[in-house]
Specification:
This protein has about 525 residues and is α+β, with helices and mostly antiparallel strands. It is about 40% helix and about 15% strand. The protein has 20 helices and 16 strands.
């Protein structure tokens, strides 16, 4: 290419070769410089009025002033000055819905008809955008920060009972120094689930960083302005429990926490993509699989740095984390509920019903609950405790809370031959034989259940010892009935020895007719 600038080394070489008397053709061929470019530099040497040996004594600054023309001062153009006045405004407007560069150029043309055409407008605007988007490398100290964010895309599992697809928000937490990352799917993004997940996150890290940085999420921040923010009461309680400091990014400034933003994207590549065709039936199953992939993700080697996230974390960062408290942070909520006629109270947050002893029907209770347990109080007395169940409109009922009539009804739902034989086996071998004979006495076994219930009641009234003795005596006959067992117990025959009475033979007496009476 002609008139192309050449290096200072080549400039001095031209002077040396020219001082030796070489022709322009040989110099051009030796230095691989175009003839027109060489002519341009030789003409500049001649205008100096100096010989080539004298030029060889010039300093670099003197040669630069001689051979390199200063920057060409462009002709003043008012259009660029007019455009620069509005570039900040155009940039802000471009972020608004529906606003395009074409729209902004049309507005610009309306105000400045002699201004740039669309192509030049876009060129100057693009240069301005690139300059204002310059990024800065941030230096992170080990153990200083934990960055917290929700992934923009959710995961899901399938409810086995209903077949419904349940979506799950995904929490991503990163230590910026090592980029060591924790990922967990949550049942909900509510505070209760978020802070319990953060508990597990710190347990995963095995320590507490000095600061926790989140974006402007409402679960953390009650009020957030550019230079001032106020955190939710529950967030402050969590921070006090773990002896850490809470911070929040500026609104709509994701670059304030770039490490976790990058790890959200990497979680799509390393976790989401690998489970996209897998099926899960609970958030628990989903998190087991995430934890497996998370281990592999943290152990993978960096692409441009030595080691892995896990190696850097264990070696340089974990020793600097503060120790965990003895117990994890527990969120307890309180609400009131009246005991309904079905002796249950409803936890409004989950729309799930829990039983209390039936004698408290109509009374107002206080419910204290956390992620795992539900406690029900009247005054300072706890009257019931349950494992928390998140099924909407479901019932959690304990048998000891039910009235006797309800218990009996529930018992009938489980009646079958095995049930009654199992009851008899707790009494004795004779009782088992009696129950089996009665169960086999009808073509339809269900018709014998009432008799079996009667026998069960007799064992409760007279005790298992007498009932077993009565069964043993009754088995001497050819058949056994409920009435026979009842008769033995009522007449205390179970207490007599077999020699004292024989239930199954007719004693001699004068009312017995013989064959002579039928001649």
């Amino acid at each position: 290419m002609t008139n192309k600038s050449i290096s200072m080394t080549q400039v001095r070489r031209i002077i040396q070769l020219k001082a030796e008397g070489l022709s322009k053709l040989k110099i051009s061929g030796s230095l691989h410089i175009h003839r027109a470019t060489l002519d341009n530099y030789l003409s500049k040497f001649e205008t100096s009025g100096k010989s080539y040996p004298e030029l060889m004594q010039y300093s670099d600054e003197q040669l630069i002033a001689l051979v390199y023309n200063g920057p060409v001062t462009p002709k003043a153009d008012r259009r660029i000055d007019d455009l620069k006045k509005h570039l900040d405004y155009f940039r802000e407007e471009l972020s608004r819905p529906g606003v395009t560069r074409k729209t902004l150029w049309e507005e610009y043309q309306g105000a400045y008809p002699e201004g740039y055409r669309y192509a030049q407008f876009c060129e100057h605007f693009t240069r301005y955008i690139k300059c204002t988007r310059a990024t800065m490398h941030l230096f992170h100290r080990a153990g200083e920060y934990l960055q917290v964010d929700f992934a923009g895309k959710q995961l899901h599992y399938i409810d086995v009972q209903t077949g419904e697809i349940i979506t799950c928000p995904v929490l991503v937490c990163t230590l910026p120094f090592s980029s060591y990352t924790y990922v967990e799917a949550l049942s909900s993004a509510r505070q209760e689930y978020l802070f319990c997940a953060l508990n597990r996150c710190l347990e995963y890290f095995g320590g507490v960083p000095r600061n926790v940085l989140s974006d402007n999420m409402k679960q953390f921040v009650g009020k957030n302005q550019r230079y001032e923010y106020k955190f939710q009461e529950l967030a402050d309680q969590w921070a006090v429990h773990y002896n850490t400091n809470l911070e929040a990014t500026r609104p709509r400034k994701p670059k304030d926490k770039p490490t976790v933003e990058n790890n959200v994207y990497l979680s799509y590549l390393r976790i989401y993509a690998k489970i996209r065709n897998e099926e899960f039936h609970s958030v628990f199953e989903l998190n087991i699989r995430i934890r497996e992939l998370l281990g592999a993700y943290n152990q993978a080697s960096f692409q441009k740095l030595p080691g892995s996230r896990q190696e850097r974390f264990l070696q340089d960062e974990r020793p600097l984390l503060r120790p965990l408290p003895q117990e994890p942070f527990t969120i307890k909520h309180t609400t009131a509920a009246k005991v309904q006629m079905n002796y249950h109270v409803i936890l409004g947050e989950d729309k799930h019903l829990y039983s209390v002893p039936h004698q408290y029907i109509g009374q107002t209770t206080k419910i204290i609950y956390d992620e795992h347990n539900v406690e029900i109080y009247i005054g300072f007395q706890r009257i019931a405790i349950h494992k928390r169940d998140y099924r909407k409109y479901g019932y959690t009922t304990l048998a000891e809370h039910m009235p006797a009539s309800h218990l009996k009804y529930n018992e009938t739902l489980g009646w079958d031959a095995d049930y009654f034989v199992s009851l008899a086996s707790k009494i004795g071998e004779s009782a088992v034989e009696v129950f089996k004979k009665i169960l086999a006495s009808k073509d339809f076994i269900e018709q014998t259940y009432n008799a079996c219930i009667g026998l069960k009641r007799l064992s409760e009234i007279y005790g298992v010892t007498r009932f077993e003795a009565a069964c043993r005596r009754a088995l001497n006959g050819s058949r056994v009935t409920y009435g026979m067992i009842k008769n033995i117990l009522e007449n205390n025959m179970d207490k007599q020895s077999d020699n004292q009475i024989n239930l199954f033979s007719i004693p001699d007496h004068e009312n017995i007719r013989g064959s002579q009476n039928y001649n």
